[in-house]
Write a structure and sequence with these properties.
Shape: globular
Order of helices and strands: EEEEHEEHEHEE
CATH topology of the largest domain: Glucose Oxidase, domain 1
Distance between the termini: 28 Å
CATH class of the largest domain: Alpha Beta
CATH superfamily of the largest domain: Putative cyclase
Strand content: 15-25%
Radius of gyration: 17 Å
Number of helices: 3
């Protein structure tokens, strides 16, 4: 395996790798002020038990809190604070073609809140975005005018490459099987 000279600049996009999105990634601001960047997230968040949430049956679009609750029930898992919840969408079959950016399953706001309310701080996905495809969001918003549509069992080790002030960071994710 070739070695990388870490004294040289690395030219890479953090959004085209296994990555971790910091709270600043979606541009939201909370009552607590400016969200943290990837280099400010506590390292202890990145080593906790996890459960893969299988979204492959959902198809293109988004899943809601009910879908997430049903998936957790199906696998017999109850979320605990700081669990890590990677998403399996089946998007590996699209890796490379343009449809990788348009034909995937994301989470709607209720699904995100379902995870956050149970203490999940780290999620991951095998596709372009944690959100639903933009065309899907735009269509649902045009139909409903619902503003909430707009951006809303193992141990996981996902060590971030800390880039000062970045909205996302490349990560090396590993599942540690018991």
């Amino acid at each position: 395996m070739p070695l990388i000279d870490i004294s040289s600049p690395v030219d890479a996009s953090p959004t085209l790798t296994t990555r971790i999105g910091a709270p600043t990634h979606d541009g939201a601001r909370g009552a607590y002020g400016r969200p943290k960047t990837i280099d400010q997230d506590p390292l202890e968040w990145f080593y906790h038990p996890g459960v893969v949430l299988d979204l492959t049956a959902a198809g293109v679009g988004s899943v809601d809190a009910g879908f997430i609750a049903g998936e957790l029930k199906r696998v017999g898992y109850e979320l605990r604070p700081y669990d890590i919840a990677p998403l399996r969408t089946g998007a590996e079959k699209w890796s490379g073609p343009q449809c990788h950016f348009t034909d995937f399953t994301g989470l709607d706001g209720s699904a995100v809140h379902h995870l956050l309310d149970r203490g999940v701080r780290i999620t991951g996905t095998d596709t372009f975005s944690l959100d639903a495809p933009f065309a899907h969001i735009r269509k649902r918003y045009a139909e409903t005018r619902d503003r909430s549509l707009l951006w809303p069992a193992f141990t996981v080790v996902c060590s971030p490459v800390c880039v000062a002030g970045a909205e996302a960071g490349t990560a090396r994710a590993v599942a540690v099987l018991d």
